[in-house]
Fold:
Amino acid sequence: METKEAFRIAVQSLWANKLRSVLTLLGVVIGVASVIAVVTLVNGANVYVASKVNVYGADVFTISKQPSFTANYNDYLRFQKRKVLSLDDYRAIQAECKHCLQVGALQATTGKIVYGTQSSTDTQVRGYTSQMAEMQNLPVIEGRDITQADEDHASHIALIGSDIEENLLRGEDPIGKEIRVDGVPYTVVGLGEKQGKTLGQSQDNWVAVPITAFQKTYGTAKTVTIYAKGGSGAALEAASDEGRQIMRSRRHDRPGEPDSFTLETSDTLVGLWKQISGGFEAVAVAIAAISLVVGGIVIMNIMLVSVTERTREIGVRKALGAKPSDILMQFLLESATMAMVGGLIGVLAGVGVAQIVTVLLGFPSSLAIWSIFAGLFVATATGIFFGVYPARKAAQLDPIVALRSEF
Structure:
């Protein structure tokens, strides 16, 4: 029997029992869909994190009180006990790090912004040094940036995100307008470029003021995050090593003891995130494995039923000269086709679920082409693996006994 003819017969058999075929496919569909959906969402998150981290550039490292991502609660508690970083630490890095091309610092909190009768209560208030907007690749599209003079004099001037312009100023020219940040008046001197949403949360709901003015309002107890640009490759390594030594000296870290602060590069942040996202993928693979095993068992049972129902047909085929290999191929193709169709439905369902999550929650998604082929391959392989036993049973039937069957 030619492969094409065997495939045609397999499709006809599946089509003749539509409801049974659909119910049989559920396990395979759920397994493949879960993998495709999770891989698509995790891949989207990986792309997003990499792009956002790289906004600062591959030549930037940060020094902070604790890591950006903390997966262990005990580690989180340990990091919380560390001493905060101060503006003096920032100024020490700025003055002493010879390999650093540019150094900036920021602090942040959440505050209430008021303009006229309009207000916002969940706005991120940032304290910037004069270099930070540039180091964060946040272009000022109207007005001007925060300058060193603003920082030196703790000037009451502010940069705003597009959400503040749209929701509070309602389309008015923002430059020169006075807003109140937690009750303190600031004059708007610049408007930042629109950044959009991430995970359903706007990235444009912020106000930035000189870090010295920020500390006059909120005090110096909040930790400072230091950003330093050190060049690429070996230059970044030399700059980060120098920054680490300066900080260890200032914080009196003894030789052999771990750092009492966290130094991260873009590669560090992306690597940490991939470790976390790898856990989600592992869970998805485990769920898919269980679903595929269940689906494979169901396929095997249905194929055994099919062999029993078609015993007489098998006898007729053998009587007309069909070889055991022809019967084996026919039933293997039937189970493989069934599983492959389930895989196709699972791929479409998985992509659909990922897109719905993206639309409703703003969670980034990015379809990995390899996951489609992997899902189809694994589904088909499952069908073949669990179809071997029923196919062999059909191939080994005695034609005389098969012809006597009453089915």
Remarks:
- The longest strand covers residues 102-115.
- The chain has a mean pLDDT of 84.
- The chain is about 55% helix and 15% strand.
